[in-house]
């Protein structure tokens, strides 16, 4: 029988296999194993915040599969949960309900809610390896008998149980298509046992010696030694990103680009093109073949790579929810319960997934405050790389100043927004998962996905920006732009006229508001002013689009105006104060 589903351009959820379960139970890993499509998985609740779709092979047919955001219940409490519940309400062919073997009682609450849908359910009892580590053993056969459905034990990360799960899905998928009615009602019999009764019958907990990983996991949650550990993790992360990035840049990438690539490409272009505009656009001061390679690959890439290395490790190990517990009190002062630290930290990578990540927040107020703070004061990893390239060699203090200022503004803006934005943050219990040793292959794949994303997202706009800069310099438009912006650029900010280009390029990408300053021989004060302007300057095009999509055009425009005003205000004040201090020092 052919059960191929017609997609008609759009994904056919109603005929799909739906992966459902509480947050952080391994749905996305299972989805990746079923479909061969690698999607993001992390060891905290709320990784998946939108639908992920793919196809799996079932009895030689391609069957659609949907990975849903995790949900604690069908009374959705966040945008992400709402996505899951809405899809579920539309129906599906087979539900794969993923259960966490270390959290059976909690997960059965959702499982029980799913029984009301007239859709066959296959249970994947996942994380059995972690359960074993904790001395928890579950009789899956008995559980299946009590739930009137197949329960398949899985260790998704190691592919254990996945072939059996595939078989079971295929069986019920085809059965549900073959059957003129919905599946046999005996299959869906609601049972009378309470969740406690079921758990008592199937779960045995033996006392095992706590492993070192569980002991560390628990210690991290207490203020002592949790806070010192957090400080150490922060310092180590900074060391890896800043120190490692600098070493990678100056020992490997810059020599390759500057000593090998640039002379050769310049010679090649000069051989074929006579001196003139085209040659300048290709290999001149803002030559696209020179800066278009040096900026993204030699100056930014090392920091992006190492930042994602550190972030992915923190995500996969399960450290971030522990940090969330420690900073909960602090973050609540700016209207954000602790779990919001996760999208906040992601913002230091890129604001787009971070703003999407706020879908897991449980109130609109939280989402809005978090989005505003990320858009206003959190530099993305590419921009941080640009700051390090610009200031790192000149003055570490200046670099530090930029980040301290950004923290100050985030705290101030958060406190104000907490007062102004109506509503209140819902009280939530932070879901702390078991500490895990990251799975090597998914860890590497995750870094690769992010890197690929950066290269695809960054390289083309950066090239376009550089071509634009080259054209503006080549056609003397820079003088026109410089004259228009002279009162602002020269008198208020104390920057040279040609720095006006940064305001134009910064609209395309945030690091482009910084990079041109590298070519301008500026004083340390000017570098600080330029960096401060770039730090608060408007969100890049991609962020603007995501703001409009996730909120409203009005929110995007307000943020656009607020960030630009803040950028010019702070930049100007720092220039004026700096000039005054220098004047006093000289006297
Ligand atoms: N040790 C172990 N780790 C697992 C297993 N299954 C998943 N994981 C890890 O558990 C974490 C959560 O997995 P995800 O697939 O992101 O969970 P999810 O259910 O999609 O989470 P949300 O999207 O937040 O709802 C990840 O760090 C996985 O690598 C397993 O069977 N054993
Ligand atoms: Mg997921």
TrEMBL record:
InterPro entries attached to this UniProt entry: Fe2_transport_prot_B_C, FeoB_GTPase, G_FEOB_dom, Gate_dom, GTP-bd, P-loop_NTPase, Small_GTP-bd
Source species, domain of life: Bacteria
Give the keywords, sorted.
Answer: GTP-binding, Membrane, Nucleotide-binding, Transmembrane, Transmembrane helix
Q: Residue ranges of the FeoB-type G domain?
A: 14-175
Gene Ontology terms, MF aspect: ferrous iron transmembrane transporter activity; GTP binding
Q: Which residues cross the membrane?
A: 229-248, 295-314, 334-356, 368-390, 396-417, 460-485, 524-548, 555-577
GO cellular component terms, A-Z: plasma membrane
Q: Which PANTHER family match?
A: FE(2+) TRANSPORTER FEOB, FERROUS IRON TRANSPORT PROTEIN B
Q: Which NCBIfam families match?
A: small_GTP
Q: What is this protein called?
A: Ferrous iron transporter B
Q: Which organism is it from?
A: Natronobacillus azotifigens
